[in-house]
Amino acid sequence: MIRARVYVKEIDYNMVLDMAMSYVNKGHSENDGEKRNPFSWTISRLEKPSKLKEFLISVVPGKDNIAAYLFNRNDQVIKEALNDVLMKNKIAANINNLDIEVVKGVNKMLKFEVTIDQIDYVQTVENLTPLLLQKMAEQDNKAGRVAQMLLSRQELPSNVLKAAIGAIPEDQRDELLTDILMEYKEELVGTLNSIVTKNNMKAEISQLKIDNQ
């Protein structure tokens, strides 16, 4: 099992509220006869693009705590979205736990902590080897030329890597993957920020920490 902690700052709280409102409203429509949480009831009344909503978000204290509350209330939806990202990127694994909390300091940040298990290393290697070699082959250097030669051997590279993975004891695979990911943490942070930008979200991922449990 691998634990990843992502620290996010410079969050657009209007965006957070817009994302959460549909879930809050859905919950109210399904539970009209139940006692409502005063906080979520107030949010559900702030229908976009209401100027009142923007004003309240600008003046309300503890916006980080509100964002953490909203994200934790919808953690199942977020986990499903993250697992969908893993699947689309051909990573055979499962995010089974998500926790969001405020990290206090000079600048407040939100910490997203996820645990990843059911990692199928052999299948993931088989899925990703062609993509990694293709990326290497685009480089105009010796590594690129070696990657081009390996690509011409079709299934050989992935078979070699799968055999190598198979030779590593299962209890050491998470540790190896953690070490590899931490070597590329700057690149991973850049990739995550690119995903944020492509989805028209306003936030900055500032730190990434990964360890194995």
Task: Write the SSE topology.
Layout: E1 2-9, H1 13-30, H2 38-45, H3 51-59, H4 63-73, H5 75-88, E2 94-103, E3 109-117, H6 121-137, H7 142-151, H8 156-167, H9 170-183, H10 185-198, E4 204-212
Antiparallel strand pairs: 1-3, 1-4, 2-3
Helix pairs in contact: 1-2, 1-4, 6-7, 6-8
Task: Please tell me about this protein's structure.
This protein has ten helices and four strands; from the N terminus they run E-H-H-H-H-H-E-E-H-H-H-H-H-E. It has 213 residues and is α+β, with helices and mostly antiparallel strands. It folds into two domains: 2-117 and 184-212, no CATH class; 123-167, no CATH class. A four-stranded antiparallel sheet has the order 2-3-1-4. Helix 1 (13-30) packs across helix 2. The relative contact order is 0.17.
Q: List the quaternary state of the chains.
A: single chain
Q: Termini, distance in Å?
A: 6 Å
**Net shape:** elongated
Within the largest sheet, what's the order of strands? 2-3-1-4
Tally of DSSP β-strands: 4
